[in-house]
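Structure first, sequence second, as always.
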């Protein structure tokens, strides 16, 4: 049984230069689709199938190898629906005997639109459905009988949610850094969040987390990256995890966090195991106003947000924020002066300005559609109601480097 797993049909944000560099320094697994890595490690333990993940490498050269199953992960919403369909058709043409299946948030949201071009779409989390599919002798019959695989005309279906995260196996990695996930999903309900339809928040046990850390360290890992959607929600779990990493003389890097959960205990533990003291990020997508928190359902208030910034700075950790603009109620508001003052007053180390993208299926998307602000064909609606046009930029005060749109940066700052 041979399985080709495709992490991203096209466009993954990494330039060719970085792809080659990461390959050369054995860091390429870090950028592989983590969902597929987890499914692969789970299925490897339970089946003998040969599985190969292609993420940013050209997967289309693989077709001559006659894979039994071609599994495509669609976590990211792409606006170009027709392009997706064309790629599915090409895959079918070049690999007529393969079973073509999809999984991931985007595939689930778009199931009715995609099902004409593929054999089945996995609903919910893929580890167990995928393992069962590999084990099934009659795969087509299995897909028809099981509720968490969507097939054409199926009316009785539901999403698979893995209740016990301790069943997950450590993932493959190369080099000295690895992604460690200890929770899944987010318990909050921001009205614009693309994870709006995702399964509920869950956690691994601390025993399992320690076992995984020990395993990774025994295989040469020295650094742990976290890509959890809602890190620090469980203070005890996170403090024990970070302290265990420190005890084992490794480093932790938290790439994203939900500022509301940051506490002194977390910062103590985090500062202890982060030698560079730079990785923690107050990555909150916001416009610095009370109104933002009230209207979007983002946890916390503007006051708490400011308190947490000061707290992080007391621990000499850097603060990065994402200012997201373009909400429907901002039609004619220019937040540049506000952001400008805020960045100066709170001494923000780096920040990113990003235009709101409304994802098909989210609460805010549906609301905007009701108000005729977006048309039916848009899968990602980019604030057509906002008259003010900012530009994306990232400013790092330490390096003094302006990555993009320097003239706008100068205008704002
Ligand atoms: S806190 Fe972040 S991940 Fe959670 S629902 Fe809100 S935007 Fe989504």
């Amino acid at each position: 049984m041979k399985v080709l797993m495709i992490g991203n049909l096209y466009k993954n944000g990494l330039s060719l230069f970085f792809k080659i560099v990461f390959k050369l320094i054995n860091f390429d697994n870090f950028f592989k689709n983590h969902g597929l890595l987890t499914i692969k490690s789970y299925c490897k333990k339970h089946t003998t199938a040969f599985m190969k993940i292609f993420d940013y490498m050209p997967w289309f050269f693989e077709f001559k190898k006659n894979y039994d199953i071609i599994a495509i992960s669609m976590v990211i919403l792409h606006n170009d629906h027709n392009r997706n369909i064309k790629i599915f058709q090409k895959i079918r043409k070049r690999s007529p005997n393969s079973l073509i299946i999809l999984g991931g948030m985007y595939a689930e949201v778009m199931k009715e639109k995609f099902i004409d071009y593929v054999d089945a779409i996995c609903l919910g989390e893929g580890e167990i459905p995928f393992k069962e599919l590999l084990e099934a002798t009659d795969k087509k019959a299995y897909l028809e009988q099981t509720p968490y695989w969507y097939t054409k005309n199926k009316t009785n279906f539901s999403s698979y949610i893995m209740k016990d995260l301790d069943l997950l196996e450590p993932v493959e990695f190369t080099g000295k850094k690895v992604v460690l996930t200890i929770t899944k999903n987010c318990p909050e309900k921001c009205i614009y969040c693309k994870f709006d339809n995702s399964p509920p928040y869950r956690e691994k046990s601390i025993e399992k987390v320690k076992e995984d850390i020990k395993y990774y360290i025994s295989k040469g890992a020295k650094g742990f990256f976290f890509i959890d959607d809602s890190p620090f929600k469980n203070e005890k779990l996170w403090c024990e995890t970070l302290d265990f990493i420190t005890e084992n003389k490794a480093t932790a890097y938290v790439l994203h966090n939900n500022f509301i959960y940051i506490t002194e205990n977390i910062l103590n533990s985090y500062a202890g195991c982060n030698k560079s003291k730079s990785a923690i990020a107050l990555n909150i997508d916001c416009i610095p106003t009370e109104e933002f928190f009230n209207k979007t359902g983002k946890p916390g208030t503007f006051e708490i947000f400011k308190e947490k910034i000061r707290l992080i700075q007391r621990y000499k950790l850097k603060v990065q924020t994402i200012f997201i603009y373009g909400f429907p109620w901002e039609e004619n508001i220019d937040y540049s002066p506000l952001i400008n003052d805020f960045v100066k007053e709170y001494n923000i180390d780096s920040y990113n300005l990003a235009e709101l993208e409304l994802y098909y299926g989210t609460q805010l998307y549906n609301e905007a559609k009701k108000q005729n602000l977006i048309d039916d064909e848009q899968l990602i609606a980019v604030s057509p109601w906002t008259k003010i046009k900012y530009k994306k930029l990232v400013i790092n005060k330490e390096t003094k480097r302006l990555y993009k749109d320097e003239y706008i940066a100068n205008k704002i700052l």
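Margin note: The mean pLDDT is 82.
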